[in-house]
Amino acid sequence: MEILKIVGAIFAISGSLFLLLASIGLIRMPDIYNRMQAGTKATTFGTLMFLLGVGLYHPTWFPKIVVLILFILFTNPISSHLLARAAHYTGVPLSKKSVTDKLSEKRKEEV
């Protein structure tokens, strides 16, 4: 039982570090699309690791934690994808450092 608490604490701390890196990525990235990429990937993984750590630390909470993990796993990437597409369609510009814009290339082909 004690080893589960240690492993749970390690997972929770690792997840917290990923969340910290995601927040730093939100500050450092040049435009909304790169910020969304940094925010989505790192926060999804960090939150999943943190929740898994809490679930291992408190085994009686594990079924509820699994439901939360599944909810985050499905909703976070989908919602950020839709927000990025909405930003693109409303004309939010890319950074000058951006190399390619596949979505605008695809829209030009459709027209």
Topology:
Blueprint: H1 2-28, H2 32-57, H3 62-89, H4 102-110
Task: Please tell me about this protein's structure.
The chain has 111 residues and is mostly helical. The chain has one domain. The chain contains 4 helices and no strands. α1 (2-28) runs antiparallel to α2 (32-57). It is elongated. The chain starts with a helix and ends with a helix. The mean pLDDT is 87.
Keywords for this structure?
4 helices, mainly alpha
Describe, in short, the structure shown:
The chain is mainly α and 111 residues long. It has one domain (2-92).
Note the main sheet: none
| Straight-line distance between termini | 62 Å
The shape, in one word, is elongated
Whole-angstrom Rg: 18 Å
The number of distinct β-strands equals 0
